[in-house]
Amino acid sequence: MGGSVRLFGTAGIRGRYLRKVTPLLAFQVGLALAGYVGSGGSIVVAHDVRTTSPLLASMAASGVMAGGVDAILVGQAPLPAASYSVVRSGSKAGIMVTASHNPPWDNGIKIVDGKGMELTRIEEEELESIIEAGVEGYLADWNSVGILRIEREMLSYYMEDIIARASVKGGGDLSVAVDCANGAASGVTPIILRSIGVSRVYTLNCHPDGHFPGRHPEPRPDVLKPFIKASSALGVHAFIAHDGDADRTALGVPGYGFVKQDLVIALLAWWKLREKRGSVVVSVDVGSEVEEVVEELGGSIIRSRLGKIHEKLLQEADAVLAAEPWKLIDPDWGLWVDGIYQAALIAHISLSTRKSPRELLDMLPYYPSARVSYVLGGENERDRLYEQVVEELSHSLTGSAVGILPIDGVRIDYEDGSWLLVRKSGTEPKLRVYAQAREEERLVNLLARVHRIVAETASRAGIRLSSKEEHISLPPGGSRGFRGRNALL
């Protein structure tokens, strides 16, 4: 283990197979989790489509049984279905072998508690301490080892429950293209959409393949652009894409192309707040569109660290939704991130309102925004540059600020409605910059000032910027406010 490198990152354990993630580690995690939850009961084990995943899942299940806990092996399944299986089976916890949207040579292990929710940072640290201290003391004697229970029908139960929840009687004229990245949702999301009433469902990259031959499994705008273009030739109303284990969902719509995630979250918040008032938990990088919709409908915004919306959700008893880009938790459905449920909910909203996804998006506010990544040589350079840039920002760009939020990087909100966020990537040697403004000119000026600060700070510190990745999202037809205040209420 080495002790100096943290095992759990922002999304469980993840890394190159045989370098960081090994069969021995999977066994140790299974045994440590069995010791952590206590003997007796069961732990669910599932895996994604990666070539190494069945092996690692078998090793994790062996560790669970060696610790005196039954292992319920559900086989290949999307991550949200694994969380669902924990709750349905009354298990103490769950282990999902997955590296989500990472390349095929990586793998990982994600652990959820008895509610299907990802472990908190404190729980991860406690489990990591057990592994670092050595797990041999948790081995059960011959007459106390757990048994292996194979329950592959759990995936069918998961699908049936979503269908029952999202079906719209009579269906409607809604056509959707689905891209599952050759991942674990390949035989799941298309079937669910057809079953809830979508009139036509076309599939792209929906045969499971751990080499991910169709595309990179991360549903980013640059990755999905050719597939959105291809789907437009089919004349569909929407294009829906997942990552490898289907906790993420991206949306493409004619006239919008790749739909900015803030609009997707705003749409889902609008729908949930129609049912009842409450708070909406969002990550610190979520934009003004969501805040405007939530506040107009009498809700309140609660901001969280990226990747930790589930922790903040636990603190908000009245939360109707928790979301960050690509990810959704609906407490009425379950306490886990669920991209398949999100896809079904988007279709359900369209079918229920008899409005196309384009018509639904047109009623939402939309403001210019940007996401920029400065690529550096390593984590030490990233950390040094971040500290110095934040110090420089505090001198240069806080003059007209009405709020400064330092929970995950530093977010600065300005009196004109624009905002800026600078943070370190939790998984890569990159400095992230997020910005938004009511008008394009203000956004361009804000980005130029930040870029000058980053470049000059890096030069003074002798830090080389390898490259800059930039994505700017501009609303078609210009900025607009919320048009759906009274729509269908």
Task: Sum up the structure in keywords.
489 residues, alpha/beta, Alpha-D-Glucose-1,6-Bisphosphate, Chain A, domain 3, TATA-Binding Protein, 6-stranded mixed sheet, 14 helices, 21 strands, 36% helix, 24% strand, globular
Write up this protein.
This protein is an alpha/beta fold and 489 residues long. The protein has three domains: 13-152, Alpha-D-Glucose-1,6-Bisphosphate, Chain A, domain 3 (3-Layer(aba) Sandwich), CATH 3.40.120.10; 157-362, Alpha-D-Glucose-1,6-Bisphosphate, subunit A, domain 3 (Alpha-D-Glucose-1,6-Bisphosphate, Chain A, domain 3, 3-Layer(aba) Sandwich); 369-473, TATA-Binding Protein, CATH 3.30.310.50. Helices cover 36% and strands 24% of the residues. The protein is built from 14 helices and 21 strands. It has helices at 23-37, 53-66, 79-89, 121-133, 154-166, 189-196, 221-232, 261-275, 288-296, 309-315, 339-353, 357-362, 379-396, 440-461; strands at 13-16, 42-47, 70-76, 93-97, 106-112, 148-150, 172-179, 198-204, 238-242, 249-253, 257-258, 279-283, 300-304, 319-324, 327-329, 369-375, 401-405, 410-414, 419-424, 430-436, 467-473. The strands form four sheets. It has a six-stranded mixed beta sheet, with helices on both faces. The longest helix has 22 residues, at 440-461. The protein is globular. The mean pLDDT is 95.
